[in-house]
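Incident log, structure service

09:12 report received: a user says their structure output differs between two submissions of the same chain.
09:20 pulled the input from the user's history:
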Amino acid sequence: MGERQSKAEVSEQRNNRSSDMDAMNSLEILQLMNDEDHAIMPALKKALPDIAQAVDIIVDRFRKGGRLIYVGAGTSGRLAAIDALECPPTFGTSPEQVSFLLAGGPDAFLAPIEGAEDDEEAGARELLALELASSDCVVALSASGSTPYCIGALKYAAGLGAATISVSCNKETVMGKISGLSIEVIVGPELLAGSTRLKAGTAQKIVLNMLSTASMIRTGHVYRNMMVDMQPSNSKLKRRAVQIVREATGAGQEESELALESADWRIKTAVVSLLARVTPEEAEELLHRSDGFVRLAVRTDMQK
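09:34 re-ran on a clean worker, output below:
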C-alpha cells in the first residue's frame, strides 16, 4: 500500500453481500442496491457534528468577505461543481463566492482526463491562479481521502492560512490529517468494489447539499423556508417568485406581481416592501442594515 493511501480504505474493499451479484436478476440487484443505500443516512448522522462545524467555518469566512472553494477529482469533483453552479440561481450569490476546481479542468466534467487527479502540484497551482486568500475556505472532496490533486490544494491553502476542510468516506485519511477539519462519512464497501460513485458519491452529494444550504440559510439568503434570493430568470421561475411573495406576505396575485415589478424582480426586496409597507428603496435600506436577513429587516422597521 502506497504512502498516499489510508491505512484501510474501506471504499476499496469488497462487499461480501454482493459477491454473487453477477448471478442475480434485475430486481435482486436493485433490492441489494437499495439495501446498501440504507447505510448512508446513519453514517451521515454520525458525521453531523463535524458537518455543523464546517458550516460554522464557512459562514465565518463568508462574513469576512471570503469565498468557498470546492476541490475534487472524478465523481467527487463533478458533484462539487454541480453544487457550486447551483448557488447563484438558487441563492443569488456571485459565481466567485462559491466556486470549484475540478482535476483536469472543465473538460473533465464530460470526460476523464488521464492522470489529472495524480497531479499534486496542479491543486496548488490552480488555487494560486484563483488568488486564494486567508479569508477563504477550501473544501476538498475525495472518497478515498488520498487524492494527490486534493492533497496539493489543501497543503497550499493551509500554508496561506485559509480554512481547510476534507470530506471523505474513509478513516484516518491523508487529507484528513492535513486539514483543519475532517468530515468522514463511513458508508462501508461498495457493492461494486471500488465504485465510489455509488454510496460514497451519494453521501458526498448530501454533505455538499448540507454545507451550501445551511451556510446560505445562516447568511440570510432564506426567509422561513423560502428562496427569497432566487434569480427568476425565466417564466417558470417568475411564477415561482410570485408564489414565494404571496406565501411570505399573504398578498394576492396582482399585488405580489406589482411588488416584484417595482423591485425589479428582486424577491427579497418585494417581500420586505410588502411586509414593512415601504418603498423598494426603503426595503433595500432595511435589508442592508439587517445584513440581508428578511426577518431582521422587518423587525427593524417595526422597532423604528
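09:41 both user submissions now match this output. Likely a transient worker issue. Closing.
09:42 reviewer note: The radius of gyration is 22 Å. Confidence is low (pLDDT under 50) at residues 1-6.
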